[in-house]
Amino acid sequence: MARQGKKIKDAYKDLDPSRAYSVEEAIKEIKARSFANFDETFEVAMNLGIDPRHADQTLRGAVTLPHGTGKTVRVAVFARGEKAEAAKEAGADVVGAEDLAEKVQKGEIEFERCIATPDMMPVVGRLGKILGPRGMMPNPKLGTVTNDVAEAITAAKGGQVQFRAERNGLVHAGVGKKSFEDDKLAANVRAFFDAISRNKPSGAKGTYIKRVSLSSTMGPGLKIDVSSLSQAQQ
Predict the structure, then answer these.
(1) For residue 22, what pLDDT is reported?
(2) Does residue 100 sit within a domain?
(3) What is the pTM of this model?
(4) Measuring CA to CA, which residue among 82, 146, 68 is closest to residue 114?
(5) Exposure b/e, 25-62, CB count within 10 A at least 16 = b
(6) Over 60: is that where the pLDDT of 17 sits?
(7) Are 154 and 77 a contacting pair, CB within 8 Å?
(8) Which CATH number covers residue 129?
(9) Which GO terms describe its cellular component (predicted)?
(10) Dmax of the chain from CA atoms?
């Protein structure tokens, strides 16, 4: 552990904690200071001026990142008949109805994203205590309760990121991998920022976006200049 401590200490060496970096500068700095021997995930975190305990200040949604997340997502679909066949053709990894529900109840959860057709919600609803805490419960607002299962599967596997503000107003998400080109990472960060901005809760008062930071799995976290995110850059 001492060796690991030295590496992360070196990663933060000469960094000014009070400085706000442009998103491009932050990406270059984080990559330059990377010491992990695997393809780290870049994560953006935003501190928002909201209290999600109030109904008019909740924040939840989804955004499709222009360059994907770099992760392979296994998708399960609750559907019957033609919808089930459409799900299989669209590339769903797991498809089923009551049989799939039984597997989930037994703890056999071999997927990261869950989609359901509206008629299956009475079955899926009984799995709320299992899927809910994992953030996998289908939700119409996220496009995961739909009759167009093919489109939902394409979105899930094509770089869609779901977000939800935590109790303290923090929202975060993985927005790509270290191996991504810098401009693609920057575009993904901006897409996530834009989605949070567009979905500002009606009850939010004062400063909505208080702080934005960018980090990698094992690397340093850097404060981001919000103005560098709101600018329309290519």
Answers:
(1) 95
(2) yes
(3) 0.84
(4) 146
(5) ebbebbbebbeeeeebbbbbebbbbbbbeeeebebebb
(6) yes
(7) no
(8) 3.40.50.790
(9) cytosolic large ribosomal subunit
(10) 61
